[in-house]
Amino acid sequence: MTKMTYEELVQALLDRVKNDVDKREGSVIFDAIAPCAYFLTQMGFQLENFLDLVLPDTAVGEYLDRAVGGWGIIRKPATTAMRKVETSASVPIGSLWGINELVYRIDRMDSTNVYHATCTTVGDKGNQYSGQLQPITNGIVGITANLTDIITPGTDTESDEALRQRFYVKAQLPVTSGNANHYIQWALEVPGTGAAKAMPLDGGPGTVTVLVVDDKKAISSGIVPKVQSYIDTVRPIGATVTVQSPQALTINVTANILLDKSRTASEIKQDFEAALDEFLKDMIFENYRVSYAKIGNLLLDIPGVEDFDTLLINGKNGNVTVGSKQIPVKGTVSLSEVSMVGTD
What we know:
There is one protein chain. The chain is α+β, with helices and mostly antiparallel strands. The chain folds into 4 domains: 6-54; 82-152, no CATH class; 173-244, GMP Synthetase, Chain A, domain 3, CATH 3.30.300; 248-337. The chain is 31% helix and 28% strand. A hairpin with a 2-residue loop joins strand 2 (96-99) and strand 3. It is extended and about 95 Å long.
């Protein structure tokens, strides 16, 4: 049924009333019909919204959780960051240390004055800071501590779009016991995994190589052992599975740009770098050719760019091929402002 506005619904209801009755605004029949039309309009809107909430391609939040739950898909929860803490002297196991409103708990000593610590706040925030820690536990005096390496990165709760993409993988890619799609599905079930690729027989009969990146579509050594450990518990007996990070293929871009004077060159470069980074991330494990034409269109779509020439990708004016075990990663971007383009 065609969705009707409040005015259209009022008129449709009035049309059902005999013409020998006063139907002008303010009349008894108009005032009786108007509230009904208002609430019917609201119900129509809510019903339309309800359909969006129950279908996996449009549902959000808890409604998406319920929509995909029937497929056995559960939203990946946030995880805590595990960090290395280096101190000037021995500190108690279980002691608490703070930096920028975050608190880290000392779990164990890995070597002399080097400790394994867990952030008490779940999510990516626990990965963001490094530097000098302040003691929170009473009785720690004269000891300095520094938060250094990330041992295992913390991850945020899985986003709606990431959960939706996992649903599409399960619903649209046929899975049998231990086929390539199954390994991709298993890898994506691990918190922190953003994309995966399975390569059967990569090392010979009975072998499978699984390439993974983190939930920011970046190479992360921390996600590899987590995926390896999980797949080892679910893989078919006899399969030799190796989980690896892909190799980075750096994509460097240079070009001369003609500006329309509405924005500065630095603003345009910043926007182009962000767009290029997003474009390359969307390619990961899906497309193995960095298109020269698409990069050019990307540059032209940046507000403030009137035209360009001498566009080079990795020093060439053509497409760049990405290897089967590589992912494209944004490198350096050099945009030179010129007064005219297209001349020798």
